[in-house]
Amino acid sequence: MLTITFVSSSDLGQLALLYEELTGTKTNMVLMESLYKKIANNTDYILIGAKDEEQRLVGSVMGIVCTDIVGECKPFMVLENVIVSEKNRRQGAGRQLVKYIENCARERNCYYIMLVSLLKRKEAHAFYKSIGYKLGVVQGFKKYL
User: Fold this and answer.
1) β-strand partners of 65
2) How far apart (Å, rounded) are the C-alpha atoms in residues 92 and 41?
3) What angle do CA 131, 5, 122 make, to 5 degrees?
4) Distance CA 11, CA 1 (A)
5) Which domains are delineated in the chain?
6) For burial by CB atoms within 10 Å, which of 50, 78, 121, 137 has the most?
7) pLDDT band at residue 127, thresholds of 50, 70 and 90?
8) What pLDDT is recorded for position 89?
9) Which residues are bridge partners to 66 per DSSP?
10) Distance (Å, rounded) from C-alpha 19 to C-alpha 13?
């Protein structure tokens, strides 16, 4: 049985390991802890995790609510750092995480949710399609600074 909950400061070590699995790079823990304090106090950031029966963090997603000033001026949400540990995939954690974050977006009157995923992450793309996200609706671009 999984529990979906907000990520706390005591979860950051486990979260860093999940992020390392996602990106292949180690997280600067001092900086992570400092920035966590900043986003934990900002209601536009929603950082949630999936915990197993032993309270191990097995997945996480961050939603960021963005203000929009076009049309009906409804906010939208961007999903970032979507990860479920490889050994815990296909057990419902990803679906539960996304369902929870989608409900958070609805509560904040978001018009839509968007995310980007590396082209090589075909398994992730299949997952996103299976839960209703559309590929090819928009073209994503990214530039590292």
Assistant:
1) 77
2) 29
3) 30
4) 18
5) 3-130 (3.40.630.30)
6) 50
7) confident
8) 87
9) 76
10) 10
